[in-house]
Each structure stands twice: as C-alpha cells, then as structure tokens.
Amino acid sequence: MADTAFVARSPFKSVAAPARISVSPGVIAQDRDGLGLATIILRRGQLEALARRIGELYDIELPRGRGRASAREVALLGLGPDSWLASNEIDGNDFAVSLRAALGPIASVSDQSDGYAVLRLSGSRVRETLAKLIPIDLHPRAFRAGDAASTVASHIGVTLWRLDDVPDGSSVFEIAMFRSLAVDFWHALAESAAEFGMVNPPALSEIR
Amino acid sequence: MNDARRNVPNRLSTPALIDRSSPLEFTFDGRCYSGFRGDTLASALLGAGVRLVGRSFKYHRPRGVLTAGSEEPNALVELRSGARREPNTRATVAELFEGLEARSQNRWPSLGFDLGAVNSLLSPIFVAGFYYKTFMWPAAFWEKVYEPLIRRAAGLGKASFEADPDRYEKAHAFCDLLIIGGGPAGLSAALAAGRAGARVILCDEDFVLGGRLNQERYEIEGKSGAAWVHEIEAELASFPEVRLMRRTTVFGAYDGGLSGARTFGALERVADHLPVPPPHQPRQRFWKIIARRTVIAAGAIERPIVFGGNDRPGVMMASAVRGYVNRFAVVPGRRVALFTANDDGWKTAIDLTAAGIQLEAVVDARNEISPGLLERSQCWKTRLFLGAKVLDAGGGLTLERIVVQDGQGCTTRLSVDTLAMSGGWNPNLALSTHLGGRPRWSADISAFVPGDLPAGMSAAGAACGTFALADVLRQGAAAGADAAVSTGFSPANPPSWRTPDEPTQVSALWQVGESTSKAFVDFQHDVTDADVALAVREGYRSVEHLKRYTTLGMATDQGKTSNLNGHAIMAALTERAIPDVGTTTSRPPYTPVAIAALASQHRGKHLRPTRLTAGHAWAKEQGATFVEAGLWLRAQWFAKPGETDWLTTVSREVRAVRSAVGVCDVSTLGKIDIQGADSAVFLDRVYCNVFSTLPEARVRYGLMLREDGLVLDDGTTARLGPEHYLMSTTTANAAKVMQHLEHARQVLWPQLDVQIVSVTEQWAQYSIAGPSSRELLERLFGSAIDLSNAAFPYLACAEFPWRVIRARLFRISFSGELAYELAVPARYGDATIRAIMSAGTEFGVTPYGLEALGVLRIEKGHVAGNELNGTTTAADLGLGRMMSKKKDYIGRILSARPGLTDPNRPTLIGIKPLDASARLHAGAHFVAKGAPATLENDQGYITSVAHSAMLGCWIGLGLLNRGAERHGERLRTHSPLTGGDTTIEVVSPHFFDPQGVRLHG
Fold it and tell me: Testing the interface with B: which of A20, A35, A137 to mutate, by most B Cβ within 10 A?
C-alpha cells in the first residue's frame, strides 16, 4: 500500500522554471530523480573478481579508467582508481542493498541514490550551454558516447557522461552533482541555456 | 565655428563599409550628431567634424583621434550613463549605435575651456619623477592631503559606483588552431587549415573581418580587398569546424592544456554595440580558449613621430587618415599634409588624392624616394619636401599650421588642418611575449619582430614584420597548413592569390630633435621626449627603469604607440643601438578587460555555490532565519510571530529542548562510510582513542589529531557491521577530514584493505533531543523499533525498515539531553521532518536552530569549532585521557613535544560573570584583576559565549593558562574590540547537569 503522506522529494523540486520556455527549445533538462545509485570501491586485489562478477550479474564489461558501460537498466561508470558509480533505472535504494549482497567481499558498496542529483541534458544547443559551465572539451570526437569525466561546472563538482545519441542523431549527456548543490547548479544551467530556450519535462519518478 | 558645422557630415560618396541607409543618432557632450551603421564613434565624430574629443591625463592638453584601432591613446571617452556608465572607452573601437551617449573626460568646466590646462603652463614642474620628488614630505601629509589631491587630479573617466545591471558569462572553447587576427594573414591561415578539416577558431577584435584590407585599397585577384574578405568569410562559414569570432579580443596567452596546448583569454563583446543586451544575452563573454596550435596574425601598429605639437587634434597616424577615408568615407580634414619617412606613408597621399582630397604637402624625411612616387607627387601639384621634417604642429584646440624645415634648414609655415604622420610600423608583439618569448630586432624594418616563439605558436603577416600583401597571404596560408599538418590533418596545397606589387621601403625616423615645443612620446600618460632625456640625465639606463621613472608605456594602452619611440630616443641619448637598449615586454591583458567579465556568472551570492539540506524547504516554510556555515545554509533560529528579539526565540528553543523535545537538522555534518577488512585497524590509527573494541550496533565519540599532535576534528563513529563503520565529522571539517583519511589510506598505508567514501549527501539527519524524545520517536516508529533503555541504550545504533525506506537511528547527544539522531535517505528528508513534527505535536516538539544548538552545547561544556581551532591539544580541551597508550595513531609522537605538554598551556574552562546581568564577548582576553591589559599579562581568551536560558545569565568557554586548576578564581576580561571590562569567575565548563543524568534518562 502506497504511503501517500511519506513521499520522496526531488532535489530539483523547488527550482525556478526556466527563464525562457521555447517551443523549439535548444536544451532539454530532465530530472532523473529516482535513479538507483551506488558507489563500488574495490577491495584489495579483487579487480578480476569484480570484473567477472559484474559480467555475470549484469552482462557488463567493467570499465577500466574513465568510461561508462551499460546493459539494460544497469550502468557502471569509472570514477577513479578502483571506484565506480553504478546506476539502476528501476530499483532505487534497494539497488545498493542487492549489489552489496551480490558483491560480498569483492567490493564495498555505499548507497548514493539520494546523494547525487542527476539531470539528463539534450537538445540542439546542449554543447554550447555546457561550454559555459564545464572546462573540458565536449566535441563529438573528443568526448564520445560512453565517455565520462569528473570535473567542475560553475564551481560545482560534477560527474558527466555521454549516452548514446538519440535516433535523430543528437547527443545526450547526463550530469550528476551532490544533491545539496542541485538548486545552485540549476541556476547556472538555466542562465546559460536561457538564450537557447530550455524546457524541463517532469522526472520519470513523477510520471510513474 | 564648430556649431555651424554641427551635423554636416564630412563624408565622401565613395564606396565604404558603412550603411548609408541606416543613419544613427548619437550625442557627444550633450550635443546630437549622426553617423551610420558600420561607424565607430571616432569615425562618426570625425564625420561630423568633431576633432577635439578629450583632454590629456596630466597637462589637460586638447586631444583628438590619433588612430583607427585598439591602440588609441587619446580618444578616450565615457559611454552611456547611470549604472551602465563606462569610462575610458576608446572611441576608435566603440561601435556606433542608435542613441549612444558619449562624453569627453578629464575636463572642467568644459572640453573647450578646461581649467586643468593650467597644468600645461606649470609643465616645467610636472616633469617625470614629480610625484616621487614632491609628495615625500611631510610624511603625515600623504594620506590626508597628497593622495586625495592626486587621486582627484589624476585618472580619466569616473566609475558609476552603481551595480552593473548586465550579465557577463564565461565560456570554454577548444580548437586545433587558434588564429588571432582576421586580416589577410589570419583569413588565409584559417582557410588553409579549415579546408583540411581542422577545428579552427579565428578571433578578431573588430566587428568586421578583414583587418587592413578594410582600410586600404588593396586588390586581390582583381577584386577589392573587401570583396575578397566576403568570399573567404563565406567559405569559412561553410565549414562546421571553423568558428569565426568577431568583436573578440584575445587578450592573454597562458600555460595550461594537454600535450603542448596553450590557454588563451579572450573577451567577446556580445552586446557592447547595442544600447542594452537583448534578453538572455550577456553584455560580454569571457572565453578560455584551449588551442593546440596558434597563429598570431595580429598585424602591426603604426608609430607616431616625436615632434613639437604632435599631440594636437588633427595630427593623426597616416594609416588612420586613409583608413577613415577608405573604410568610413570620412574626410578627416580639408587641408591635409603628410609627414613620413617610408613608402607606406605615401599610401595615404595616394588614397586621399584618389578620393579627391587636396594634399597640401608631403614632407618625407628621406633625401631620395623612388621615381614612381616622385612622379606621382608631381601630377598631384602637391608641395614636396624631401629630406625635411615637421618641427611644430601649431594651433589652438585643433591643428592650424605646421612648420616644415627642409634639408637646407629653411623653414616654411603651411596652413593645414590635418597632418598624417608615419614613423614606420611595429609588429604587434604583445601575445608573442606573454609566455616569455623575447622580441628580436629587425634592421630591415627598424622594428622588433617576434623572436623564438613558444612551441606551438607562430606568427604570420605584419605581426612578424611581413608587409607586402602577397607575402602576407602566402605566409598566412603556409602557417595555417603547417598547423593542420601538426595536428593530424592533411591539407591540400595552401591556397595562393595574385596581388599587385607594392613598394615597402622604410627608413627609421623616431624624433625631430630640432623641435622646441613639447613633443609627446606617450600620449596617454603625457610623457615627452624631455622626460626621457631627464631620465637619462638622472642616470637611468634600463628601459624598465625608464618605464617606471617616466611612466612611459604604463597607461591603459601599455605603450602600443609609444614604447619603441621612447626606447629609440634613450638609445640615441646613451649612444647605444636599439637592440642593445632592448624593449619592455607586455603582459596580459592586451586591451583593458572589465572585472565583471572575469567574474562572469560568479557574482553576488553566486560568487560561490550554496548547499541546501533536504529539509531546507520545510525550514523556510517555518520562517527560519538562515546562516551560512561554510557553503551550507543552516537554520539559525525559528522565530515565532511576535518574537522580535533573537535571544527570546533562542531561549524558547533551548527551554523546549530541556523541558520537552526539540528537533534540529544536523544533515550538514560530514558522514564517511568506512569499509574493508582493515577498517577497524584504520580507525585505531586515525583516531587517538580505540575503535577496534567498539561492538557492532554501538557508537563512540572519537578525537582525531593532526600529524603535529594538535586536534584536527571530533565526532562520533558508529559500527554498522564487522567491517563497516560510519564516521561523522564536524560540518566545517568534513572535506578536510576526508582528505586526511584519503591521504592516510592512499599514501601512509596502501597495504590496508579499507574503502572510504563520503555519504554526507545521501542521508538527511535530524537530532531529536529532550526528555520527551523517546515518546516522540515511539509515536513515529510504532513497532518498527524497540526504543526502551534496555533495547536501545545510550550510544546504541540501528538500521531498520521504516515505511518505504531503511532508516538509521543513533542514540547520541550534543545537548546533554536524552537524544537521538535519525538518518533517512535524503530524498525522504522533507517527508521525515514533517512526520517528526506531526508525531511530536502532542509533546510540544519545537524546531531549533544552530544558535540554540550552540547554547545547549556551551551549557554542557562540549567543544566545537571555536575550541577545535588548530591551536589546541586533546589535553587542552580536557580530553587528554582519550589518548590511548596502547596503540599508535596519527599525532601521537608529536603530541608529546614539550611545548604541547607544558602544564602552563591554556586549558578549557567555563566562565560566569560576577554581575549576572553582564554580557560576555567571545575573543575577550583574560587578565588578572587590576593588571594592565598588555600582552605580557594576557592569560588566555574566551572562545565561545552564550546566554544560558537555564542559568539565566551569560556563560562562556575559554582557554586559560593552567585553567583546569584555577576554578573559583576571579579575573578580568578585556575586549578592546567590543569595549568594556567584565569580572568573571572561572568555573567548570560543565554548567548544566554535570553528572549527565539526563543523557541516560
């Protein structure tokens, strides 16, 4: 039975509407609230064991270094030496629980589903918008689908990755920041995107 | 006279880069004028017959337009009004727009009659070094008299002193090849590299591309320069990887970038040419451009000649005179003369004649010129003076006559209103020197050219001393193709174009020594040849000293038109060759950059990010007052309607916690997940007390030392499982502790199997404190958890399913009351605080803020940031017994240093004023009663104060020499900052419930 009085609140819940809502928006920013997230940190000497286990569990080749690999609802993203951010489209907070049970002594798992605020950014002017926020090269040849980076966006630490292009050929990025900074990040994003027009469709968690 | 000519444009009907169908009205010093779209303010003023545009910095000499580019030293004006007022803008680069308001600067009461010009009469006093020599004595006068006086007299325009209403942006761009300058060299380089598929960015400070092609009457492949530019521009625009950035000045070259790339700062004037920026557009955009290769194609700057009266309005650079004719169809004057020593200057004579403007005279310092030029001048019926010089440019507010001295020494007075001068061209070296490149002297062109350039950088065209158009185009194309090859592209043969031959003979002419009137070297800073001579007489020999003594080249134009002339004059006076005298190097920015652009989006409260807790929206609804705690915003207190005084509110919140139950958002405390087989060992080594013995489902208070033995941080750590701990840190030290642990894990003990990650943001955490806290939680959780003292005693912790989440509960207390901290996934932080408030209604639950939290902990004598201040040891804080003697830990060895174990060290005490109504102030120092408040008598200081709601008076914590053994003593506190002395009694820091009975309730 649903607990109607006890509902999750997205970190982007209280942000201002985009300054300029356009019928042909240059940027689409979708809240990914509800995504299950967990950090995986390798225990000593368990790299091959982890790679094997991740392969068995999710049919994913563990990314070595910066990069992202996904299959069905699960993805793994290299955050740094021996650490990954795993995501799950469906399981929410339960993802970390099952992941911890599945990895056992191979790696340490910490739930981060609520720790990060994640946005999916797309639209024809997404790169021009991100260029105002992020000091790295996002040219299609320099930052390919599956690439990931930890960097800063307007003073805010972020992790950014590029998904596969959508059918019309345009690029899609996802960007994660600490939850407490979501409102501040949104302000910077909305200001940067204003000249191109931006829309923010409802989060999947709100549609469900 | 000027009034009669007002609004009568001195315009030709020749083809030009102005749109005659778009007239634009503007004002200068309150008078209306009109120009055209495509004009600069300078061309529009000249077109309207305005020749006097400003007063000089020191002598208040009348000044006009000298150049047609960003090197302009004279025509500095104030643009716009109100909050958008913008001083010291060069009229030569300000793009005209409808309604532009401009004002002259540095004059009073008016531009035509300026009282400050009296300085000119006193000029024998105002020589170089005047300030150094004059304002030295008496020293006391400096701050009160001299400095305000100098500040009022100096400077040019005035700032608005209002907040800038416009937005500014920062943006990043990356390319294989950055081309600086969009003239013939830059465009041909862009084409060569662009055709090969390279990512190219071409920046030009002008609003039209083409550089000198727009100001000269060049032909390329039989077409006009402007037509050629249009063709190339169109082709470049068709390449998806080529970005053309007009109105963009690359102002600095910097290190930084992977594999040999360089970083450049550039300023794009997005909306400077509009009255106000369009919606959602910034006024300016500051670009960081990271380029693998760079071609400097920034052209060259024409040199003035130093002769008497060379600053008088009407004396202009020869290239500027023809530039105004060719690009803007503006006639700079009716009676024009040319003073040159090189073939390039003659282009002005040729272009003016072609435009039908009568040339009164050509004065060429050379004894011989090419037969072609001689023949031409004869057709023009122009007086030609060879081997001659202009001694003086005379007149009042504008030029009226020149005095020419020919080779035989005969002088002739000529009535002219415009004099075009050309001393030759200086390659624009600025960006070539920012990364340490040293210029090299070229005797061929009598100027410095770029020397060895930093790797990845090259120069092409006039920027490297190549002046013939055919050579410039060839060089640009080759540089572009080279850059493409070296970044992995395969260009076809570089493009090439046919152009007519042109003469480029140059003879250096720096100065007319025979002049007796004031001759300017640096126009913007009013430095004359006499100032340079004075510096030499006073013994200065280095160009760097010359610069500082005379301020030559120290104005906002950085001496673009003046440096080499000054150095050449010094070389002549000291009988050295110019390359032996050397030249100064320039530094970024190439042209002035508004601070607002560098700050970009990060201004006001966006200077740094703000962190909000999951309960922020709820707290805001409750009318909380927030306070910054690092980047976090935390509720300081929750005032109720009718409460007008913060102390009333805070005392109410404290009493509620002591008598019923309060709730406080403690989500900002750092939380670090620590896992791994060696996590217990790791904790034993980073904390001074033992954690390996902590049972599962229990919490312990821990104290962490720095390597030097002083206290780093404190907090509680819970054992969630055999190999799983959760550490909490103070809000302020969360990042510092995380770094400290990462250093320990990665560097000190890489062999330990331990994994750490911050989970601060994952959990929203609330402290529920007070005698009714258990009842509140029992109401909240129902049967989800047994909270009886037996099942869940002090320092217990548990994770359990509650509603749709897994919650964590810790029985810990900062307030000294029966208290719990409830942690929930942050997405449920908002729902949880609402649920707590709802469950607590019947128990009188009261939200409390940071201020009440402070009062509660001071009443209990708990240390916080004020005491964990980087100068205290564990023993100082009364926590010495926590330092384990059974194990090693970070800080153990150095904490035993004699200075840190000295029994005379200040230690933690509590204080109470003898007069219960007296207020205490943190920071006040302790001195013995009756002793003077001197450093020698200082015995310590107050670290924290609070008005205790329970004790009904101010109380405090402090650090007092041998404090622990001095309870009962009376001392004086002295606070020069807040004033007033108070007599206090030293007491135990545990003011309230010293036995801790309530904690275990």
Answer: A137
Helix (H) or strand (E) holding B77: strand B76-79
B177, B273: one domain? yes
The answer to whether residue B4 scores a pLDDT higher than 80 is no
Decide: residue B709, CB within 10 A, 0-12 exposed, 13-18 middle, 19+ buried.
buried
Token look-up 């680069």 returns B93
**What whole-number distance in Å separates Cα of residue A89 and Cα of residue A96?**
12
The CATH code belonging to domain A36-111 is 3.30.70.1520
Domain harbouring B937, CATH code? 2.40.30.110
What is the separation of C-alpha B816 from the centre of its chain, rounded to a whole number of angstroms?
48
- Which of A111, A142, A183 has its CB closest to that of B762? A111
| pTM across the whole model | 0.93
Residues B16, B107: one domain?
yes
Instruction: Write the pLDDT tens digit of every residue in B87-142.
Output: 999 999 999 999 999 999 877 778 888 777 777 777 776 677 766 666 666 666 66
For residue B674, give the chain A residue with the closest CA: A108
* Domain ranges within chain A, ordered by starting residue: 27-33+115-207, 36-111
Tell me the nearest-neighbour CA distance from B961 into chain A, angstroms. Answer: 42
Burial string for B341-355 (b: 16+ CB within 10 Å, else e) reads bbbbbbbbbbbbbeb
3-state secondary structure of A104: helix
B2: confidence class by pLDDT, cuts 50, 70, 90: very low
Q: Report the CATH superfamily, name and number, of domain A27-33+115-207.
A: Probable tRNA modification gtpase trme; domain 1 (3.30.1360.120)
Radius of gyration of chain B measured on its C-alpha atoms: 38
- How far apart are the CA of B806 and the nearest CA of chain A, in angstroms? 9
What digits encode the pLDDT tens for the residues A155-176? 999 999 999 999 988 999 999 9
Count residue pairs from A and B with Cβ separation < 8 A: 145
Write phi, then psi, for B234 (nearest 5 degrees). Answer: -65, -40
Helical H segments across B660-806, by residue range: 679-686, 734-743, 773-781
| Confidence check: pLDDT of B7 > 60 | no
The B residues from 209 to 248 touching A (CB cutoff 8 Å) are: none
How far apart (Å, rounded) are the C-alpha atoms in residues B387 and B367?
Answer: 4
Interface of B with A in 629-648 (CB under 8 A): 632
Interface test with A, best of B757, B760, B805 (most A CBs within 10 A): B757
Last residue of a domain, one of B740, B758, B776: B758
Same domain (yes/no): B294, B443: yes
Written as one letter, the residue type at A184 is: D
Helices and strands (H, E) in chain B, number of each type: 26, 49
Burial class (CB in 10 A: 0-12, 13-18, 19+), B408: exposed
* pLDDT tens-place string over residues A100-141: 999 999 999 999 999 999 999 999 999 999 999 999 999 999
Question: According to the model, what pLDDT value does residue B3 have?
Answer: 40
Question: Is the domain of B213 the same as that of B246?
Answer: yes
Q: Which residues of B touch A108 (CB under 8 A)?
A: 673, 675-676, 724, 755, 757
Contact B957, B948 (CB under 8 A): no
**What is the domain extent for residue B918?**
902-1000
- Which helix (H) or strand (E) segment is B663 a member of? strand B662-665
ipTM of the prediction: 0.96
For B675, the token pair is 């896992």
- Cβ atoms < 10 Å from Cβ of B469: 25
Pure H helices in B177-313: 184-195, 225-237
First vs last Cα of chain A: how many Å apart? 15
Shared domain for B565 and B701, answered yes or no, is no
Residues of B with CB below 8 A from A15's CB?
A: none
Percentage of chain B surpassing pLDDT 70? 96
**B507 — contact with chain A (CB < 8 Å)?**
no
User: Does residue B510 lie within any of the structural domains?
Assistant: no
